[in-house]
Fold this protein.
Amino acid sequence: QGFPPYLLLILTFITVKTDRAKTLLHYPNMSVSEIADILYFCNGGYFTKIFKDHTNMTPTQYRDYIKNRS
């Protein structure tokens, strides 16, 4: 029952990276590709996929959301 420890570690790591990405997306001068690089994703497309899997928004949609919320 439950997830194996290695899977929990991976999920926690991805959650931490996604949370950091949310913070970095508040800076409009940083591109999505730059954020992907900073967070050590292999490329921007993979970063976008992982981000969307965890937030139901692409990084660009999230950036627009926080901009319109302000």
In short: The mean pLDDT is 94. Helices lie at 5-24, 32-38, 44-55, 59-69. The chain is about 70% helix and 0% strand.
